[in-house]
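Here is the promised in-class demo. Please do not try to memorize the tokens; focus on the logic of going from shape to residues.
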């Protein structure tokens, strides 16, 4: 019996971890099973053609909020062409309300409820005899048979390595997703992960063996999908130490709860090679009534202390999250949450919007909080009793502006000075910038860093006339560092003024070697391409009035900024 599993990812760089586990487990049980991965950006008829090329008796789809409409359309077309085939679906979008799912799409034959590796294999084993295992819901005589509810895999050691095509994945520079634990001990009201409160661990020796495979394949990024990676220090710390000591350029991404990091862990993280780890920390809100309503218990003082230490190490990327549209949080309360988290100066601050997922506590509290949200995926919030549509829509605009300014990392100094110039806090500045940005016609388009630099230049001229010259000099510095080699005329470059001094500098190998190890003059073309120098006329950081030269040394993806004396 031939079975085809179909994963529809949101982007080409993604990999379908869940269906990969299902496929590899079924193969180990001796089943003829194949997996194809496509994206929602591929023309749907092209995906259908790929599916139809595999003449299978069972077709399995994983359904998520990002692919549900696409998958439903595929299933409908597939059933018209192969009505005799059986369609099985699983995934978080369908597992928790099967009666609704069967009602939405009658073409579905079976629904896997929960973690599907063993259940799906059991289903295939009984397929020819008509035996349906527990945790597979189905229809019989027009009635839905729930058949056991949601299940989990208690022993993660039974799961095979999910990347038989690892080398191909690595060479395509795709993100490798991985999990060493499943389940979550917390019960955040908007999340499905806490429904299974038990946390199960893959044996550490198996995890380290898997990590060795990723390192050997030179995978660029391994993204752990564990909901809270750092729950058990005796489990995760040896793993982190192993990865820190490895000879690799692979980056490992973890979602952590920052306020439970111990001093021992923090001391260790200060020694980790630069770029080896990156952390995502879900703060979501700092408003106490909101935290209570969503069942979160965070120690804010400890979180601040730990994040400040992590950022002080300057060896890893720190990504913090906020969620807009939560209970008891209007625009005023969200403003404070934003300013609280922004004050930490993370490398990235993501402004997310509440998704009212079916099966969650939040979904059951719709009337309590006056939640109005999209009926279809991604179920995003539109308005609440605390934040009307107009305020949420404003935050959508602010999020777009924020993504193109702060989160690019290209304009740290000018944004800091503009916030100081505004004098009312970070949110107030971005509120002002957003209103101007929209009025100037720059929204909803997305602009690259060059386009944003010109937008910030125009903003300064129109809104900061008294200090425009000083602020433009700071913007010029950020542009020079972030986009070396790009010198638009409107930023008043000193290239011609300092040409002779710069030429003399590069001819003096002894002087240059103080800044660039083992320097040897090669050619003017290489010098100007790889080591631009510019003169600035006031100190970007201290505000002193002085002239200084800056050299940008570009080494692959890493850029070093050096103040030099010519």
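The designed amino acids, position by position:
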């Amino acid at each position: 019996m031939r079975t085809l599993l179909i994963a529809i990812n949101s982007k080409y760089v993604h990999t379908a971890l869940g269906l990969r586990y299902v496929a590899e487990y079924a193969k180990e049980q001796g089943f003829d099973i194949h997996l194809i991965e496509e994206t929602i950006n591929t023309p749907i008829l092209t995906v259908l053609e790929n599916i139809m090329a595999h003449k299978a008796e069972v077709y399995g789809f994983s359904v998520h909020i990002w692919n549900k409409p696409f998958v439903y359309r595929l299933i409908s077309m597939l059933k018209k062409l192969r009505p005799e085939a059986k369609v099985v679906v699983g995934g978080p979008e369908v597992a928790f309300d099967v009666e609704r799912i069967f009602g939405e799409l009658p073409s579905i034959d079976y629904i896997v409820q929960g973690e599907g590796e063993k259940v799906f294999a059991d289903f295939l084993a009984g397929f020819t005899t008509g035996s349906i295992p527990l945790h597979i819901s189905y229809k019989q005589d027009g009635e839905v048979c729930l058949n056991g509810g949601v299940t989990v895999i208690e022993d993660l050691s039974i799961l095979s390595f999910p990347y038989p095509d690892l080398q191909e994945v690595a060479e395509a520079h795709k993100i490798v997703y991985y999990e060493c634990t499943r389940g979550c001990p917390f019960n955040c009201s908007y999340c499905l992960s806490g429904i299974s409160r038990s946390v199960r661990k893959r044996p550490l020796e198996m995890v380290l063996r898997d990590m060795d495979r990723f390192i050997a394949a030179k995978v660029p990024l391994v993204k752990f999908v564990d909901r809270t990676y750092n729950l058990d220090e005796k489990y995760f710390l040896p793993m982190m130490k192993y990865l820190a000591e490895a000879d690799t350029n692979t980056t490992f991404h973890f979602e952590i709860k920052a306020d439970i990091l111990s001093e021992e862990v923090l001391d260790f993280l200060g020694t980790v090679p630069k770029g080896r780890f990156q952390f995502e920390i879900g703060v979501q809100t700092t408003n106490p009534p909101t935290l209570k309503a969503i069942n979160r218990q965070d120690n804010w003082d400890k979180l601040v202390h730990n994040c400040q230490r992590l950022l002080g190490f300057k060896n890893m990327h720190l990504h913090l999250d906020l969620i807009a549209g939560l209970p008891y949080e209007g625009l005023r309360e969200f403003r404070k949450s934003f300013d609280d988290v922004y004050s930490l100066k993370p490398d990235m601050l993501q402004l997310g919007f509440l998704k009212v997922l079916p099966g969650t506590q939040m979904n059951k509290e719709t009337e309590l909080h006056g939640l109005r949200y999209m009926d279809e995926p991604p179920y995003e919030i539109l308005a609440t009793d605390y934040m009307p549509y107009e305020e949420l829509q404003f935050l959508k605009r602010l999020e777009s502006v924020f993504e193109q300014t702060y989160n690019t990392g290209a304009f740290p100094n000018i944004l800091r000075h503009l916030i100081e110039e505004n004098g009312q806090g970070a949110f107030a500045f971005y509120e002002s910038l957003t209103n101007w940005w929209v009025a100037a016609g720059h929204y909803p388009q997305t602009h690259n860093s060059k386009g944003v630099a010109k937008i910030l230049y125009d903003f300064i001229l129109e809104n900061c006339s008294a200090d425009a010259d000083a602020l433009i000099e700071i913007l010029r510095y950020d542009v020079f560092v972030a986009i070396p080699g790009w010198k638009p005329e409107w930023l008043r470059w000193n290239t011609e003024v300092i040409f002779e001094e710069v030429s003399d500098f590069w001819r003096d190998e002894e002087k240059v070697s103080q800044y660039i190890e083992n320097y040897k003059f090669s050619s003017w073309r290489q010098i100007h391409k790889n080591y631009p120098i510019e003169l600035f006329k006031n100190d970007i950081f201290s505000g002193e009035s002085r002239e200084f030269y800056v050299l940008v040394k570009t080494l692959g993806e890493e850029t070093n900024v050096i103040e030099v004396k010519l």
